[in-house]
Amino acid sequence: MFLIMMMGVVLVLLGYAIGFALDPEAGFVGVILALIIYFVMMIVAFSQGKSIMLRMSNAREVKKEDYPQLYNIVEEMRLSAGMPAMPKVYVIDDPSPNAFAAGMNPNKSVVAVTTGLLKIMNRDELQGVIAHEISHIINRDIRYMTLATIMVGTVAILSQLFFRSMLFGGMRGRSSSSSNKKGNPVMMIVALLFAILAPIAIRLLYFSVSRKREYLADASAARLTRYPEGLASALEKISGSTHDMQVADKSMAPMYIANPLKPKGQRLRNLSSTHPPLNERIRILRGMGKNSSYAGYQQAYKSVTGASKGVIPESSVKNV
Amino acid sequence: MDLTTIIILVVLIILVFSLISMYNRLVKLRNQVKNAWAQIDVQLKRRYDLIPNLIETVKGYMKHERETLEAVTKMRAQAMEASGVEDKAKAEGRLSAALGQFKIAVEAYPDLKANKNFLALQEELTSTENKISFARQNYNDQVLFFNNKTEMFPSNIIAGMFGFKKEAFFEIEDPAERVVPKVSF
Is A34 contained in some domain? Predict the structure, then answer.
């Protein structure tokens, strides 16, 4: 939650800096512009997000008769999570093993898996993967990550708008210099810096949020199945797969079980990835032993990563 | 109106509202327990429906396992008759144990495991049993929340006044879970 708020702060600051640079009295106009772009995108995402995602990934809905085991496993996890309604089950024809969840509302959610995943996973492993996806739904990660993705998008649009207005507005300002307060040079440079740095900063925050939610979904999956080894072994198979996801878009990455786009650079991979490294996720799950509760995950996380602070919010650890 | 009357009125209003909300909370929790039970019930019925099909499919193959099959049929009938959470739990535990014996017996019939119809039924049975145990966990969680509310102060006063009684946990004593089956080679 803190990170999401930080992202909001970056967005508002950028809006203010741009507004201020163009006209010292109009800082708030930039903020309003930023918020308008944000809300328009949010309305589209909340009303259309699920269907856009399904169409982009070429997923088709399946019935129990087509994939009885997959359907059964989804229902098992629904019961374990105490979800009110059965998610729709979708299958994507893609040899790369992956899965994702969609739907802002646990009552109208979707779980999609690739045919590649169904081919290589046994029952326990498939259960682990589905549990991870169901966890994204019940932990409301889809909502969180949509809000976050839109913030990244809004910042990108704002920066672009600003660069363009610099190119064109700058010239226009000189030819018809009606007012002298426009184009304060110091503020211009500050805003320019901001327009360059804000998209980077917000992306780093975004990746950090995404990775946290992945750990949490792993922990919830262990709790739902009471068998962390299932997911661990599934992740191992996924990491050994050489297929790249054919129809993957980076804005959808946080909803997949493993990053569908394998990052090319090695050095910055940990900072600029939507998912924690697979081998680390596997080691944490295997470190849980017989304790498949949140507390078990927290402890395993600390011992594997050497972090003193846990990754699961303390309130959830105590509750269950 | 002087200040004391206002204070007394405000305190009364707060009191009444908190009583109402405590009552509503108890009703909500009890409904969640009922709903969780309904989820288990659906799966238990599903298992009753699957067993005759399963027996019918395997009968031709497992000629030497009449006792095992009869035990399953008998336990199913007993479980269907049982009523009340605790009796049901005991009968279901015995049915699970009988099915456990059956699954061990199946291992000796390789051609059965090549039968498509049987494999589909086996997947259904496994899944139904998983669903029972996941739904049971959820039910027990809901019962725990509800029972805590009926026992803890101050909601226990409301619970006593309106007759909210503690609900029973659904504990299946599955002998197979505790005793490791003896397999001799």
Answer: yes
Q: Pairing state of beta strands A110-114 and A88-92?
A: parallel
A45 contact B CB<8A? no
Token pair for A51: 């269907």
d(CA A9, CA A310): 25
- A257-266 — which CB contacts under 8 Å span 24+ positions? A257/A98, A257/A99, A257/A100, A257/A129, A257/A132, A257/A133, A258/A98, A260/A96, A260/A98
Assigned token pair, B6: 């206002």
Per the structure, the complete domain to which residue A157 belongs is given by 2-51+143-205
ipTM associated with this complex: 0.72
pLDDT tens column, B55-103? 888 888 877 788 888 888 888 988 888 888 888 888 888 888 888 888 8
Domain count, chain A: 1
Q: Is residue A21 part of a domain?
A: yes
In order of start, what are the domains of chain B with their CATH numbers? Answer: 40-178 (1.20.1440.20)
The answer to whether A278 touches A239, Cβ cutoff 8 Å, is yes
CB-count exposure of residue A253 (10 Å: 0-12, 13-18, 19+): buried
Cis peptide before B181 (omega within 30 of 0): no
Residue linked to tokens 């009295």: A25
In angstroms, the separation between the Cα of residue A220 and the nearest Cα of chain B is 14
Q: Which of A74, A79, A89 to mutate to test the interface with B (most CBs of B within 10 A)?
A: A79
Which residues of chain B carry a pLDDT beneath 70? 173-185
Would you say residue A297 lies in a domain?
Answer: no
